[in-house]
Amino acid sequence: MDDDRVTMLADLDKPGMRITLCRGGDGGHGNAHYKTSTNRAPRRSDKGWPGEERWVWLRMKLIADAGLVGLPNAGKSTFLSVVSAARPKIADYPFTTLHPQLGVVRLSMTEEFVLADIPGLIEGAHEGTGLGDRFLGHVERCAVLLHLIDGAAGDVVSAWRTIRHELAAYGGGLDEKPEIIALNKNDAMTPREASARRAALQKASGAPVVLISAATHQGVPELLRMMFDVVTRAREEARQTPDD
Ligand SMILES: Nc1nc2c(ncn2[C@@H]2O[C@H](COP(=O)(O)OP(=O)(O)OP(=O)(O)O)[C@@H](O)[C@H]2O)c(=O)[nH]1
Ligand SMILES: [Mg+2]
């Protein structure tokens, strides 16, 4: 970004991309440059001219294939720790995760994708409540969002709506990204609670809801397969769209 923090100068989103932001100066010529057969010890030298200077703002966006979103305590970091070798901090209080974390999910020898875990969002995050929404930039480049909902924490529909609202308020196309909704902590719900909450969520979202338990791994392999399918499709589309 330019000094105004609004104008984008470049988006370096592919490996190896380069841009020139400032031209270097000219070091000038030393006296050896002016040496001739008749003037073998010239007194002349030139100073050259200075290089360009400017202020720019660098903003990092993690490049992950899939991103985890949800309220604090939904089990995002637990999920990441179960499906990858990443070892994020996990605890039963909100805002355990303070920084985004990446993990590589390996489904087979040839199938893998990168998953990003970000701090939890709460209502008003787009206005700075909680840790705010500044970490959402790290899931802007994801092909799919996994929206985790704590099934054991009461009103699952309002939990889902709160996050959807924050995604929309953040902008950046986050609310148009493919979303997979997973109701987590199945092990902590009675079967009756689980099916009622799942049905309510499906009705509210108009989309299928996967029932999982990050703790017992129940439903997790199937969910990873669903995520990988979306990632694969996005990769194929990216390959077919030539860069301009
Ligand atoms: N019973 C049960 N507990 C779970 C499950 N998944 C996570 N938990 C617990 O839920 C609590 C929160 O888990 P985290 O993974 O830290 O949640 P988070 O979404 O990363 O939370 P923040 O980083 O604060 O946004 C921890 O005590 C976990 O042990 C699950 O499937 N079943
Ligand atoms: Mg966490």
Topology:
Blueprint: E1 66-69, H1 76-83, E2 101-106, E3 112-117, E4 144-150, H2 156-170, E5 179-184, H3 191-205, E6 209-211, H4 220-240
Parallel strand pairs: 1-3, 1-4, 4-5, 5-6
Antiparallel strand pairs: 2-3
Bound molecules: guanosine-5'-triphosphate (GTP) and magnesium ion (MG).
The site of magnesium ion has 6 residues, from helix 1.
Task: Please report the total strand number as a whole number.
Answer: 6
**CATH C-level name of the largest domain:** Alpha Beta
Distance between the termini: 21 Å
**Helical proportion?**
10-25%
Category by helix and strand content: alpha/beta
What is the makeup of the main sheet? Answer: 6 strands, mixed
What fraction of the residues are assigned to beta strands by DSSP? 5-15%
CATH superfamily caption of the largest domain: P-loop containing nucleotide triphosphate hydrolases
Model regions low in confidence, pLDDT < 50 over at least 5 residues: none
Hetero ligands: guanosine-5'-triphosphate, magnesium ion
**CATH fold title of the largest domain:** Rossmann fold
